[in-house]
Amino acid sequence: MEQKLIGEFTKNFNWRCTRENYTYQVTNQIISNQNISKVKGSHKFGKNNKDVCGVLFQFCNIKEIPKGLTKIFPNLKYLGIVNSNLKIVTRNDLKKFTNLEILFLRGNEITYLPGDLLQDLNDLEVFVVSVSKIEIIEPNIFDNCKKLKHVDLRGNFCIDKCFSSVYPDLQNATMEEIKEKLQKIYPLWGEKVKNFKGEITSETLKLIKENLRYVKAINSLIMEKNFIKSNFEKFRNESKKEIEILKEKLSEIEAKNSNSESNFTQNFKTLMKNEELKDFTIKTELEEFKAHKFVLAARSPVFANIIKENVNAEYLNLLDVSSDVFRVILDFIYTDELSENIEINFIELLIASERLKIENLKNIAEEKLMDEINSENAYEFLTLSTKIECEKLRQKAFEEIKKYYEDDGN
């Protein structure tokens, strides 16, 4: 299912450039589907979609860069996502933006910039990922950016800490001192500065001083984690009152019978096997599973909301979850148990548990996957855990990457 953007066309947005800046702006919209098929808004100044050179998202809720923008606006040069909770950005997200000159990603939740991120952006001149939560920047990220003029990574922990602790007096440094520091922290860049024979103007010197922190941060892949977590949580709709009461009773019974299987749990196992009273069907890719609405609602706030919004619904399509994985999920919903020796795709189980907001199962899947992290798949797990907010898994992947580079350095 695709989504329509609701925004406005304007010629007044300042991209800090003197060229054409006819822009489509989207504000305060939840982008629940990453595939954009249509946009809503009235063109001005006799323009059309081909005249749009910039798209700006402000104060939206976007986990990934939406797909389909370049089909609607084929001549995009500027892309901005500001204060919109963007968590991850990859080369695949940007590969269609071949004409991009300005990439402005300020005030988001990004923690990792991969080395191939800008590989396809040959015309990129301005790259801004400021006021985010960056921990890791791979060192070859700018290798293909021959036209790059401005980089702004301010307001990120790894960069700010590095700059303030290692070069507290940089603003008073001479050009010779800067050359020496550059050669130590980034030999390639340092050599270029050392061999430069032209005149170093005061403006150029100032620019080098201001940007030395970024050079250091790029070379220092791993910095210790020190984030201040946000103090707010997204509001979730509560299920029916009787469902909440049922959940409370279930918790009380399980607490009282922590050393042995409770009668309540045993009754739920019996209930799971009773096909006659089941009133809801989940359709997966290969199989259909019958269940009780009140059990699904009690165990998953997502199911609770779906059932609450359409109490007469008899089925739900869940075609992007494999039958094997949903069978495990349904067993867990009824029994709150997962077999120790079960053979399942725990990555898919983790993603599905997060989607259905079954926190206990998500935590179990996360623990299982932590044992599988190694130097070869750590970046993959870092990306996954950042995307679906698995802090322990993300930290384990981060530590594995840190260990790899520490060992490599020795």
UniProtKB/TrEMBL annotation:
Keywords: Coiled coil. PROSITE patterns: BTB, LRR. It comes from the Eukaryota. The keyword ATP-binding does not apply. Residues 236-263 form a coiled coil. InterPro entries: BTB/POZ_dom, Leu-rich_rpt, LRR_dom_sf, SKP1/BTB/POZ_sf. SMART domains: BTB (SM00225). Residues 278-342 form the BTB domain. This is BTB domain-containing protein. It comes from Polypedilum vanderplanki.
